[in-house]
Amino acid sequence: MSRTPHVTSAFLFDLDGTLTDTVYHHVLAWKEALDAEGIALSVWRIHRKIGMSGGLFTNMLLRETGFDIDQDLSDRLRKRHAEAYRRLSADVVPLPGAAELLRTLSDMDIPWAIATSGRMETARPALEKLGVDPANAPVITRDEVRYAKPDPDLFLAAASRIGVGIDTAFVVGDSIWDMIAARRARALGIGLLSGGYGREELERSGALRVYDDPADLLKHLDEVGGRR
């Protein structure tokens, strides 16, 4: 009797809050950028939007603050955020187990890629601390797709980059925006608590499994098809 061929899983990772402990660096950088433009927004409200595309971020700002955010203001905010983040990113560190998780997947010949809503100008410092060179590793940034999360474009592009079907991929992320994008891409979502969202929020948004951080995922990798 012939056996059905084994389908190898692939893993598509968000970056901030998933592999690197950078969510709150971005929150503070956005807070600084907004304050510089005289836009008052509480830190907790900013946190709830980290992980979505910059365009949606500013659209939600418009609704919550009543400011008329035109393209010039949007561009200034993005520039101020990038400048503040570069300054704050000096103490960026990978999350526990992140580098080991990527090494383990590579050693097991399991394909993986990173897909982030950030542009390369802000993603590069975190990638460097993680030990990932975007010249040699599959990294998709906001610069390369038309729409970022919660649209599925980033994860679809990441799956295409490593030559796997999106239906064989797990999307690993820390925010509801990652999980919504995974569902829209028709991939299975794995949530991590390391970005500040709660277990129930991630599960309601589509997470099949939820773990504490990359180290916890690594311990349970076989639960999500992480084997040769």
UniProtKB/TrEMBL annotation:
GO terms for molecular function: hydrolase activity. It comes from the Bacteria. Pfam families: Hydrolase (PF00702). The keyword Acetylation does not apply. InterPro entries: HAD-like_hydrolase_sf, HAD-like_sf, HAD-SF_hydro_IA, HAD_sf, PGP-like_dom2. Keywords: Hydrolase. SUPFAM superfamilies: HAD-like. This is HAD superfamily hydrolase (TIGR01549 family). It comes from Azospirillum picis.
